[in-house]
Write a structure and sequence with these properties.
Layout: H1 6-16, H2 19-38, H3 43-52, H4 61-70, H5 78-81, H6 87-99, H7 104-111, H8 122-133, H9 142-149, H10 153-170, H11 177-198
Helix pairs in contact: 1-3, 2-3, 2-8, 3-7, 6-7, 7-8, 8-9, 8-10, 9-10, 10-11
Length: 199
């Protein structure tokens, strides 16, 4: 539960984020609401979480690292080399400290929206995927991911993680071990489900 109205959140974000990031957040919120409707989740909570998912975007890298260091939010040294990865856990921490949001479901969805986790709730998957399918994005396979996300969250997670890994490889970027671990987790889970179905 988030004890703020949509309008109150929008007003905060409009002051805090760049115009581009603000529009992205509105689009992610709308995509999250649509996915929540399809999969029987709380549409209001999904929308507000979508709005807030990039709360720490735009914070300079040294400041992200400093906040993460001070509050034990760094999981792997790679995050210091790619500080943008820290905007998710730092954002979750700031939402609790600055806006008083205590809902663990919301904080976790914000925290894991860039790399996922091994125990993702439906809301976690919805925010992760909404961030990737919102119409302002433009990359190969986006339309396919959008279709998948509206049919099967787990299949969409695997496809989305594969796309992320492929992009990092193509760009010569460092891959975070958690991204690979989460991708393998979804692959194994889907393969296990398929084997059970075939028996």
């Amino acid at each position: 539960m988030i004890n703020m109205t949509e309008n109150e959140i929008v007003a905060i974000l409009e002051r805090r984020l760049s115009e581009h990031r603000f529009q992205h957040s509105l689009a992610v919120a709308q995509a999250a609401r649509e996915l929540a409707q399809i999969f029987g989740e709380d549409t209001d909570l999904a929308y507000k979480t979508g709005l807030l998912h990039d709360y720490a975007k735009g914070i300079p890298a040294p400041e992200l690292i400093a906040i993460a260091n001070d509050h034990d939010l760094i999981e792997n040294e790679i995050e210091k080399k790619v500080p943008d990865l820290l905007h998710a856990p730092v954002g979750a921490w700031q939402l609790r400290i600055e806006l008083g949001i205590e809902d663990p479901a919301v904080l976790e969805a914000v925290k894991v929206h860039t790399m996922g986790s091994l125990q993702m709730s439906k809301l976690d998957k919805i925010i992760f995927l909404a961030d990737m399918i919102e119409p302002g994005r433009d990359y190969p396979g986006q339309q396919r991911l959008d279709c998948l996300a509206r049919r099967d969250l787990d299949q969409a997670m695997l496809y989305g993680l594969d796309a992320t890994i492929r992009y990092c490889l193509d760009q010569g970027r460092i891959l975070h071990p958690r991204t690979i671990m989460v991708r393998n987790h979804f692959l194994e889970m889907i393969n296990d489900t398929n084997q059970i179905t075939e028996q």
